[in-house]
Design brief:
297 residues; alpha+beta; Multidrug efflux transporter AcrB transmembrane fold; Alpha-Beta Plaits; 2 domains; 4-stranded antiparallel β-sheet
């Protein structure tokens, strides 16, 4: 099949998906969790909410305002909320639990986390450094394995495509639905790089094998043949992962739901980009190289 006939359509689809997310990322950024900003998180469950004392976020904030200034109150499940704010010590935490218990009956402490602001900044710095190092090493590895720079650069651009999709989606989710990014999101982002480069290398390896056997064939023909031979394998491998992640996103708990969603987005975009971004980028590289060569003449 002549997949590369529609390569500009594939690029257009990528732009349609990426541009809204990038605009959101520039205008609104992302909503960082306390892992990056520092502060405290207290998650509690109300075991008995009577009609007399229905749960109201505004009244709850007023009741706690005398001892603690909350940044946000977020529902994390049925009769379950997360309180976020500046650093909270054990004495303040116990006092908050006592006030909640007095006003709303029996409660259960589900989670308590505290991260200092310096640790949050350090974690963010290490995250960015880790992404850059991983991308650089992958590019060098692919470059060495295929003996041409264009393979390494194209693989990295495909990875960047997947990362931009994931970052853009979570920027939009953060702006419209208050979804925060934490250390689990970083894990999902790095895993997305793995999804992307895994299938990309499979396609590139098949192109290299075909090029050795049929050196007289054009690059377009070789890429079309390679994509035809590897596409079904890539889809079959990815569908099993996607089904598992979709089930985890729908049925998993609140603490891992958005982690599963991030992995799901990464799996889908990684499968798409390996065939419809990474392979066409090789042709784009060739077109640009020919254009530059003609200009020099």
């Amino acid at each position: 099949m002549n997949f590369m006939k529609w390569r500009w359509l594939y690029f257009a689809i990528s732009l349609v998906v990426i541009i809204p997310g990038m605009v959101s990322l520039i205008l609104f950024g992302m909503k960082p969790a306390i892992d990056f900003t520092g502060g405290s998180l207290l998650e509690v469950r109300f075991n008995q909410i009577s009609e007399k004392s229905s749960l109201s976020y505004s009244s709850l904030k007023d009741k706690l305002s005398e001892i603690y200034e909350l940044d946000a109150i977020q529902q994390s499940g049925e009769n379950q909320i997360i309180l976020r704010g500046k650093h909270l010590n054990n004495e303040q935490k116990n006092l908050i639990l006592e006030i909640l218990s007095d006003n709303y009956g029996s409660i259960e402490e589900r989670r308590f986390e505290a991260v200092g602001p310096s640790l949050g900044r350090e974690l963010l710095t290490k995250t960015l450094i880790g992404v850059v190092i991983a991308a650089g090493l992958i590019m060098i590895y692919v470059w060495i394995q295929f003996n041409e720079l264009k393979y390494g650069v194209s693989a990295i651009l495909a990875m960047l495509h997947d990362s931009m999709v994931l970052l853009g989606v979570f920027s939009l989710l953060g702006y419209f639905y208050g979804i925060e990014v934490d250390i689990l999101f970083v894990t999902a982002l790095l895993t997305t790089l793995s999804f992307s480069v895994h299938d990309t290398i499979v396609v590139y390896d098949r192109i290299r094998e075909l090029r050795g056997k049929y050196s007289k064939y054009s690059l377009v023909s070789l890429i079309n043949t390679a994509v035809t031979e590897t596409l079904s394998r890539s889809i079959n491998n990815s569908v099993t992962i996607i089904i598992m992640l979709a089930a985890l996103a729908m049925l998993g708990g609140e603490t891992i739901r958005w982690f599963a969603v991030a992995l799901l987005i990464g799996a889908v975009t990684g499968t798409y980009s390996s065939t419809f971004t990474a392979a066409p980028l090789l042709l784009l590289w060739e077109d640009v190289a020919k254009f530059i060569k003609q200009k020099r003449k």
